[in-house]
Amino acid sequence: MRSRLEAAGPYVLSLFRVVVGLLFACHGFGALFGVIGPAAGPQATTVDPLSWPHGYAAVIQLVGGGLLLLGYGSRTAALISSGSMAYAYFDVHAPQGLVPLDNGGESAAFYCWAFLLLVCTGPGALSLERLLRPVSGKRLRTVDAARG
């Protein structure tokens, strides 16, 4: 049983990356275009992509989430996304209290740590990076490659 779970690990990691990337991209899409999420509806409001910090955050969410969804540039996208969520947590939520359940910063804290995990583990077994890299090229370090 344990060997099956370990063999499935890189594929489950890919599924995790896809789901987290999709959800993160949806936040950015909703903020920029006002068609999904809390920004949707008759009184839909959008953010200017060049406004600091909300517009920049929405662009990072859309682009970073999309790259993670595809598994292309995953570590870089995850690092930038993790940093943006850490900034969001400490700039927006932490002044209202340090505990995420009390200050509304649960999703920012979760995304920050989820992206940091992806920085360390890589995109998993199923990714555009893996598909596009040359067969004779240098192997990308993933969880299974780090094991030996």
From TrEMBL:
Originating species: Streptomyces oceani
Alphabetic keyword roster: Cell membrane, Membrane, Transmembrane, Transmembrane helix
Compartments in which it is found: Cell membrane
Bilayer topology term: Multi-pass membrane protein
Name of this protein: DoxX family protein
Pfam families: DoxX
InterPro entries: DoxX, DoxX-like_oxidoreductase
CC annotations in GO: plasma membrane
Family under the similarity heading: Belongs to the DoxX family.
